Amino acid sequence: MRFWISIVATIAIASPAAAGMSASFDWGQTKKCFDTNSPPFKVTGVPQGTAKLSFKMTDLDTPGYNHGGGKVEYSGQSAIPYGAFRYKGPCPPTRHKYRFTIKALDAKGKELGKATATRSFP
């Protein structure tokens, strides 16, 4: 009697979405309380098929306050400039920590990837 052993190998290839999207930002020229221009961002690992990047800011010290965010057309750029979208800028009475959630969206609005970036202000 013969026994045959079959070995099946699976090769996983990391897609941009699987590899992970990341983002960072610097407050740059953002001014306290009166600045509605978004800070400059750097994004990497943005999934193929992304048409827009959606940004939303949360004050981690006052999470109930709605700072809003905005959407930016995406065509492969890694730098998103100061003022790319409008939002309610930071206006803390003391140092607060803020988190931006950045979502990669396809042309129909489906989420393809997500990243967060956190920084204190001022």
Automatic annotation (TrEMBL):
Signal peptide: 1-19
InterPro entries in UniProt: PEBP (IPR008914), PEBP-like_sf (IPR036610)
Keywords in alphabetical order: Signal
Top-level lineage group: Bacteria
A Pfam family: PBP
SUPFAM superfamilies in the record: PEBP-like
Record-given protein name: Phospholipid-binding protein
